[in-house]
Design brief:
With 644 residues, the protein is an alpha+beta fold. It is 51% helix and 11% strand. It is built from 21 helices and 15 strands. Strands 10-11-7-12 form a four-stranded antiparallel beta sheet, sandwiched between helices. A three-stranded mixed beta sheet has the order 1-3-2. The protein has a three-stranded antiparallel beta sheet with strand order 4-9-8, with no helix packed on it. A hairpin with a 2-residue loop joins β13 and β14. The chain is globular. The relative contact order is 0.10. InterPro entries: DNA/RNA_pol_sf, HTH_animal, RT_dom. It holds the Pfam family RVT_1.
């Protein structure tokens, strides 16, 4: 009866609407009435699409609920030590979220642990060591607050970041100097400290629940024993982000094989390394003193006893075939060399140079800083006619690039825009002098042996990305002179749109002839979609369509739902993923597809798709978040449609 009465009310409302519509049609001018009818149809279509999407999301939530209940059942089986993974399941896990090389046999418990990802944090109780760290960090915070407050008092007013003569140094002082007390700061800090101590006292005697199952804890012990015995090495893949398990002997052989490249590396000595970093410090002190920097700042940016940079490698698992997984040949595996320069001789000085050089990137016309800039350029491009789109990729830009050409391009950019840059008292020639010395100090150590990189830029050095971008601005100048429909680049990934295929071939040949060591590869659209960065682009009849994209090499590993990270951290990760998937999608259908992909990624990392307060810090109702952003996007389209 209730449904029948609602139906009768709806029919009566529809009849009234029809009568009013006919009256308006007689009174309103014909042209205006046609426009009103057209806009009404658009609004109705949007409402239908919104209802359709809501029903789809509801169905997806029901499916997620069923899957989550199945996952919970499997988890309970694990906790009771009754889990029995088949060999096919283990193979699937190793291929999806863990890469195992050279036929290493791992237990199902160890695989289950490694599946959680490199960012997984173990839950730990508050022990005396944690309390000591809390007290020490509170003391550091109090000193910093006092220092800032006292400096404001000395300068006679508030100090704004924009008016600061020199940027804040992120490096600690060489010597500790107690700060003078400040009444206001000390009062507020005392309240903060009491609150922190109250939380510590509340949880110090409580036993923290494990966020690992019993089988995973057993796998943790197994992995720890094998690592301590030197049997295996745990690493993280280059682009996939998953754990990689490799025999330690094979890992050493692969690194040694990589260091045999005489065009890239040469043997060195500790004496030569010491002489070079002392020369760098001497040049820095002389130049900075002439530029007028304070002696305290000069000393804080100088490293008297630096740590020698070390080499480590990331395996390019996306370039390994299935047959190569069991190979013992070091030449089969490709690696990305990274030189960790944390605490090294150029670490602090290169930070200061990077502050200056970052300003020149705004004058590189093809440079991209994020996906939003790419979408803006695509929308502003003139895509009339049958245009052609492709993406170009530079092969090993950092190691194959020329340092001399990079320095020359950097010098030209600094010289052309010197008046608009904040150089902190340095001249362009002084900056280039210090920059050359930093690049000359390209030493590192591996397995107790000193090496020097003699070609290209070292991954891991602060200056490498900026210099690579400046170098590429010189390489791509002939292409920009030809004025293609669109040419843009993110470091070594280029997106180019040309009016004809012939013009595209000419541009590709020109780029490959700019330098002997620099070579480009190309990728054409597949099924009319071209992947670039984290989106896919489709050009059709002068319109651009975009959607969110995940590379096949990416294993979609995020912070796991069961990780001991703060709940808000995990919420931010998931919300940001859905936000990006929503914003890069050009229409409702593509947005639905992108959000479905984001939902799958979230589920693969243990996040449920429905309301559930997880005992291990889960996130509630991912699907509602996606539906909320979908509704916002639809209302925006509805309001914007009359302007088109």
């Amino acid at each position: 009866m209730a449904i029948r009465s609602k139906r009768d009310i709806m029919y009566s409302c529809l009849k009234e609407c029809i009568v009013k519509e006919k009256c308006c049609e007689r009174i309103v001018p014909e042209r205006l009435w046609t426009r009103i009818v057209g806009e009404s149809k658009n609004i109705c279509d949007l409402i239908r699409a919104k209802a359709k999407t809501r029903l789809k999301n509801k169905f997806a939530r029901l499916v997620d609920q069923q899957r989550a209940s199945d996952m919970q059942a499997v988890s309970n089986v694990h906790q009771n030590n009754e889990a029995n993974l088949t060999s096919s399941t283990v193979e699937h896990l190793s291929n999806c979220r863990v890469t195992v090389l050279c036929n290493i046999t791992l237990s199902k418990e160890a695989l289950s642990l490694l599946e959680l990802g490199p960012s997984f944090a173990l839950a730990q109780s508050i022990n005396p060591q944690v309390v000591c760290k809390v007290v020490g960090n509170l003391q550091i915070l109090q000193d910093r607050l006092r220092c800032r407050a006292n400096s404001i008092v000395r300068e006679g007013g508030a100090r704004d970041q924009a008016d600061r003569v020199f940027p804040v140094l992120p490096f600690p002082c060489t010597f500790y100097r107690p700060q003078e007390p400040h009444a206001v700061v000390d009062t507020k800090f005392r309240l903060l400290a009491e609150s922190v101590y109250g939380v510590v006292r509340q949880y110090v005697n409580k036993r923290t629940a494990f966020n690992l199952t019993p089988s995973q804890r057993h796998g943790f012990k197994d992995l720890r024993n094998r690592l301590e015995a030197g049997e295996i090495r745990l690493s993280v893949s280059d682009k996939g982000g998953e754990f990689l398990v490799i025999p330690q002997e094979l890992d050493k052989a692969i690194t040694q094989s990589h260091l045999q490249d005489k065009t890239l590396y040469c043997r060195s000595t500790e004496k030569e390394y010491t002489r070079q970093y002392r020369k760098l410090n001497k040049v820095w002190c002389c130049v900075a003193k002439v530029a007028g920097l304070a002696s305290s700042t000069i000393n804080r940016l100088k490293s008297d006893l630096p740590l020698c940079p070390v080499l480590y490698t990331r395996f390019k698992t996306h370039k390994i075939t299935f047959a190569d997984l069991s190979s013992n040949d070091p030449s089969v595996f490709k690696v990305r060399p990274i030189i960790s320069n944390v605490g090294g001789p150029t670490d602090k000085i290169s930070w200061f140079l990077n502050v200056i050089l970052q300003q020149i990137l705004q004058y590189v016309p093809a440079h991209l800083t994020n996906t939003n800039m790419l979408l803006e350029k695509l929308l502003n491009a003139d895509l009339r006619g049958d245009v052609v789109v492709e993406s170009f990729d530079v092969t090993s830009l950092y190691t194959n690039g020329s340092n001399e050409a990079a320095l020359e391009a950097t010098y030209e950019l600094l010289n052309d825009h010197e008046c608009t840059l904040r150089l902190y008292g340095f001249s362009v020639s002084q900056i280039m002098t210090v920059l050359k010395e930093c690049l000359n100090c390209s030493f590192f150590r591996w397995s107790g042996v000193y090496y020097k990189q003699i070609r290209g830029l070292a991954l891991g050095q602060r200056l490498a990305p900026v210099l690579a971008i400046a170098y590429m601005s010189k390489v791509e100048e002939p292409i920009l002179d030809r004025r293609p429909v669109l040419y843009t680049r993110y470091i070594d990934d280029c997106l180019i749109i040309c009016s004809t295929q012939e013009e595209m071939e000419i541009c590709f040949d020109i780029l490959n002839k700019q330098a002997d060591q620099i070579k480009f590869t190309r990728e054409r659209p597949r099924r009319n979609w071209l992947p670039f960065l984290n989106i896919q682009v489709q050009l059709s009849r002068g319109t651009v369509r975009t959607k969110w994209y995940r590379k096949p090499s990416c294993r979609n590993i995020l912070i796991h739902c069961h990780s001991a990270h703060p709940i808000r951290t995990k919420q931010s990760v998931i919300r940001n993923m859905f936000r990006v998937a929503s914003r890069v999608s050009s229409d409702t259908d593509l947005m639905t597809e992108s959000l479905d992909l984001a939902r799958k990624v979230a589920r693969s990392n243990g996040y449920p798709g429905f309301h559930q307060d997880s005992q291990r810090g889960g996130i509630s109702h991912i699907a509602d978040f996606a539906h909320k952003h979908l509704s916002i996007r639809q209302s925006f389209v509805c309001h914007s449609s009359p302007k088109r």
